[in-house]
């Protein structure tokens, strides 16, 4: 049980009496708790569960906002350019691609810190790094300031293949946010 999360420890606390009950053959009426009834994880513990996609780099699992570590995806309202000059809502498409890929599968998110009251975590689906998938498929950029090159090969593959935002023109999400902040101050 080396990978027991706080939820797992909560289950152990909750089913401990149930195990004794099984041993004593006195389990009639025993109600097993649902995953929603398990104690919430602490900020420094692994978060496991089905996710709702907020945007291309933010998820929510059981009311916990999680920022994907090491990547930066286009903002929800951000637009990118097709090679022919047409604009498209690349932020919306990045979120949709992530939601489609995750589907109803559970995520395992290992905390790396906090940012704006959100947990920053490296998340996996069936052992596959979600951030790496987003970068490799051109839906996010490596946020090198934090990733320190972790997704360098994935980003090179996306650029070479011309997928996602790399099929045309785009503004890096961090520059898009900076420009919007500056514009709002004027």
TrEMBL record:
<dbReference type="Pfam" id="PF00565">
    <property type="entry name" value="SNase"/>
</dbReference>
<feature type="domain" description="TNase-like">
    <location>
        <begin position="53"/>
        <end position="168"/>
    </location>
</feature>
<dbReference type="InterPro" id="IPR035437">
    <property type="entry name" value="SNase_OB-fold_sf"/>
</dbReference>
<protein>
    <submittedName>
        <fullName>Thermonuclease family protein</fullName>
    </submittedName>
</protein>
<dbReference type="InterPro" id="IPR016071">
    <property type="entry name" value="Staphylococal_nuclease_OB-fold"/>
</dbReference>
């Amino acid at each position: 049980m080396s990978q027991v999360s706080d939820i797992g420890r909560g289950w152990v606390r909750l089913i401990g009496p149930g195990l004794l009950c099984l041993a004593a053959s006195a389990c009639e009426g025993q109600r097993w708790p649902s995953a929603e009834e398990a104690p919430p994880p602490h900020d420094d513990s692994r978060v496991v569960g089905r996710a709702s996609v907020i945007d291309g780099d933010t998820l929510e699992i059981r009311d916990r906002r999680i920022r994907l570590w090491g990547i930066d995806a286009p903002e929800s309202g951000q637009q990118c350019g097709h090679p022919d000059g047409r604009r498209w809502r690349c932020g919306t498409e990045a979120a949709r691609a992530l939601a489609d890929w995750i589907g109803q599968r559970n995520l395992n998110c290992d905390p790396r810190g906090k940012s704006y009251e959100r947990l920053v975590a490296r998340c996996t689906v069936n052992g596959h790094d979600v951030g790496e998938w987003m970068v490799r498929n051109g839906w996010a950029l490596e946020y090198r300031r934090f990733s320190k090159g972790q997704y360098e090969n994935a980003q090179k593959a996306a650029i070479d293949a011309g997928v996602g935002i790399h099929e045309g023109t785009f503004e890096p999400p961090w520059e898009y946010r900076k420009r919007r902040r500056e514009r709002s101050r004027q």
